[in-house]
Amino acid sequence: MDVFSAVADSTRRAMLDVLAERSRTVTDLVTSFPNISQPAVSRHLKVLKENGLVTVQVHAQQRIYSLQPNGLVELDNWISKYKIFWSDHLDSLEKYLSKNKENGEQ
Q1: Side-chain half-sphere of 66: how many Cα atoms within 13 Å?
Q2: In angstroms, rounded to a whole number, what is the distance separating the alpha carbons of residues 66 and 25?
């Protein structure tokens, strides 16, 4: 599996969102995802770890997971090729909205 496949799953993306706020224990993550069993949370974390998206630190019996931003570089590099299209479209939308506002259209 690669980083693209790892983030293709909505649950794993949601876990990355939670970890972007702060590091969490497995127990914290299980609590954050009440509809998912602890073994399923652990399997998702394993995929994220194997793909370099999270790191884990072991403190006694706790495993603390943290977002690994460098793991997102491959995604960012791929997306950056398409950002120019977003800027062009947003600029066009801004011009369109400004023109309609000037003409009193809504």
Answers
A1: 8
A2: 9
